[in-house]
């Protein structure tokens, strides 16, 4: 079982310098976690290089970015993007008979989800082919990257890849019921997760969210050896999730979003960092707080544990950053609402007896329950409604602060990680920001 290892000490400033190489392994989206670490790399004068997952037009062949898409992505990143499609997973990967797993699901109605069966070995065949495709693409990516390695300098890889929901219409209504359904629409995550469709999701999540990190470390072994032979160093960091410690009353308490079915893939990521560290490779996974990003948009209620971050900023020293955060958040509230009421409601929710049952670290990731989902979704809506403009909500502002703090902690700590798996709880992030 994973040991709970929160980061306790602010890491020292790292030794990265101008000309060192920062590689973002995944795409950069406007409000994504990676923005924080990319800003740090730029500030340190590192050369920033990015990746792309590629594109599929109407679910067709995987292709690189067009010249226009590439120019836009490079402008957004502020660096060169190696235009080799690095999409992971096998949902669209044809088997020997030419059919992909999602094509095999054509015509199936959402109500029949429990009786779906793939033929013997069919998922495994596509999984292996998808993995081979990813490895072959990664080899091309690494061969384009190798000449950019600074002689005697440092390379920092930041892995941000996560996902793998099979891209077929059948899944959206089912996942909407699992993550957003109440009353008659509620679908418990446990039977779904134990079904054949759940197994398909699990295998695909493992490929995208977990195994891409191991494959990156493996496929860069030769490059790493070359860099090290020249006196340089290669380091790897990845974004994990395994619940988060937030300020409730007087203490930082571990809690989690439920049902985080991708949790098994995230634990795989942790295992990869532990194994790499044992082999003398500098690699660490940083388990980060729940924030609002493109990827977390499906998980309504994931943001509820973000509100107490404002209280953590005060508790860890306050000062100009905390005051500015309060002013910025207060300015987003509807007339008549207050931050005090918002924080009190969030805390009341997070400490409710029903939610305390969902704080089982050893049993993580837990499955959802009907009452828990109804409670979470209702509170999520109530707290969101306290912001005046639903396009500019308080938790978006808090998300930005958190990804900045996380980016700085990961960047600094990557130089000499305090451990292979570290939780970045609200306390250490707040301390970093107010310092
Ligand atoms: N949002 C949160 O609450 C939260 C909490 C803790 C950790 N994280 C982690 O942070 C990281 C970045 O996520 P984010 O929330 O900022 O969202 P994001 O949408 O900005 O990033 C998701 C990343 O996954 C990549 N990706 C998606 N599908 C892929 C596929 N099939 N193959 C390869 N790459 C694929 C995207 O290119 C992108 O880089 C992820 O590892 C995520 O699990 C997020």
How are the elements arranged and paired?
Elements: E1 21-25, H1 34-43, E2 47-52, E3 55-56, E4 62-63, H2 67-77, E5 80-85, H3 101-104, H4 122-145, E6 154-159, H5 171-180, H6 189-193, H7 196-219, H8 221-229, E7 233-240, E8 244-248, E9 251-255, H9 263-278, E10 282-287, H10 309-315, H11 320-330, H12 339-351, H13 353-356, H14 370-384, H15 394-414, E11 421-423, H16 426-434
Parallel strand pairs: 1-2, 1-6, 2-5, 6-7, 7-10, 10-11
Antiparallel strand pairs: 3-4, 8-9
Helix pairs in contact: 1-15, 4-7, 7-9, 10-16, 11-15, 12-14, 15-16
Describe the structure.
- The protein is α/β, with parallel strands linked by helices.
- It has a single domain, classed as Rossmann fold (3-Layer(aba) Sandwich), CATH 3.40.50.
- It is 44% helix and 12% strand.
- The protein contains 16 helices and 11 strands.
- The strands form 3 sheets. The chain has a 7-stranded parallel β-sheet with strand order 5-2-1-6-7-10-11, with helices on both faces.
- α1 links the parallel β1 (21-25) and β2.
- α10 (309-315) packs across α16 (426-434).
- The longest helix has 24 residues, at 122-145.
- The two termini are 34 Å apart.
- The site of nicotinamide-adenine-dinucleotide has 26 residues, from loops.
- Nicotinamide-adenine-dinucleotide (NAD) binds at residues 26-27, 29, 32-33, 53, 86-89, 160-164, 208, 239, 241, 288, 290-291, 293-296, 302.
